[in-house]
Amino acid sequence: MIRGLVLSFAVLTGFACAANAQYLMMPDSTNNRLVLFDPNNGSVVNPNYFALAGGTQIHALQVGNEIWVSEQTGDRVSRWDLFGTSLGAISGGLDNIRGMGLIGSTVYVTNAGTANGAPGNAVVMYDTSGNGLGSFSTVGLAPSPFGVLAYGRGMLVSSSSANDDIHEFDLAGNSQGTFHNSTSLNFVEQMNYAHDGNILAGAFSSPSGVYWLNYNTGEIVSSFAASGVRGVYQLGNGNVMWTNSSGAWVYDINSQQSTQVYAGGGRYIDFLVIPAPGSVVLLGLAGLVAFRRRRG
User: Fold this and answer.
1) Structural domains of the chain ordered from first start
2) Distance CA 125, CA 106 (A)
3) Which is nearest to 89 in space by CA: 106, 60, 68?
4) For residues 85, 91, 97 and 101, what is the CA-based torsion angle, rounded to 10 degrees?
5) Does the pLDDT value for residue 42 go beyond 50?
6) Which of 29, 50, 114, 284 has the fewest CB atoms within 10 Å distance of its CB?
7) pLDDT value at position 281?
8) Sheet with 33-37: strands ordered across
9) Cβ atoms 90, 97 nearer than 8 A
10) What is the spatial distance between Cα 175 and Cα 218, in angstroms, rounded to a whole number?
């Protein structure tokens, strides 16, 4: 399945050329820098790809030929080109922001505060040029939202607070019901797709760990214990990279042990492609997964 997704990703984005560079990227919110990893085995490729602004960075997301970085205490989304040149920031109407998601041509940003004219517990929407498209409330559904993942014809939104650990919304923000809510999962931060098509969820609070959730039902399929999980991503070799306040770790599926691969302020993990000259980014990987699921 994952090979088909990667092949389609290459075709749709024009990234079939071997000259394109592919990485995983993670903001280090302790040292204010972007870190690059090998997407196959999780080894560090560049521990300081470029310096980030302050503001407790949570999520670095590729948006076309830019990298957008959410700043939780900075109350803004800083924008960079693919090589670290600042392109300014989206600010105003944001407070205590966390994870983001690119679905189609819309960027969804999770928001929890009300300062700066922000809407409180909500998901704020922007087009890929940074123009505001409004917001939708997650109050009573996924309060204190932390992450967004393209899902079916809509999205999943994770939460640090009751009611739901993960709630489903359509693209306009209408509730589609609970995806997962149980005492076995608590304070979900990043979500991602596993190789088997199920959902990976990083649970920050006890019982902290990485969970596989059934794509259709949201039920727990399997899990492993890990401390204070923030970010999660399944590597090309099948092992799982996860992050916490100490840095980035790789969980070996066979030995069932985690090894630290980077020390720093670990946050969300996302895919980065630096294209060869003439290539154009059309879709993010998460958006492509949702596109493929809608198609088939």
Assistant:
1) 2-295 (2.130.10.10)
2) 7
3) 68
4) -60
5) yes
6) 114
7) 55
8) 44-51, 33-37, 21-28, 270-274
9) no
10) 16
* β-strand pairing of 175-180 with 166-170: antiparallel
Do the bridges between strand 232-234 and strand 220-225 make them parallel or antiparallel, or are there none, so unpaired? unpaired
Q: How does strand 247-252 pair with strand 240-244?
A: antiparallel
pTM above 0.85, yes or no: yes
Query: Residue 59 and residue 74: Cα distance in Å, rounded?
Result: 13
| pLDDT at 163 (0 to 100) | 77
Confirm if 207 and 222 have CB atoms less than 8 A apart.
no
Element (H, E) at 9: helix 2-13
Residue 257, token pair as written in the block: 């042990």
Rounded to whole angstroms, how far apart are CA atoms 184 and 179? 14
> Does residue 288 register a pLDDT over 60?
no
- In the three-class reduction of DSSP (H, G, I as helix; E, B as strand; rest coil), residue 168 is classed as strand
- Tens of pLDDT, residue by residue over 125-163, are 999 999 999 999 999 999 999 999 999 999 999 999 877
For the stretch 86-127, pLDDT in tens is 999 999 999 999 999 999 999 999 999 999 999 999 999 999
The pLDDT score that the predictor gives to residue 295 is: 32
User: How far is residue 40's CA from residue 237's CA, in Å, rounded to a whole number?
Assistant: 5
Nearest Cα neighbor of 130 from 100, 85, 170 is: 100
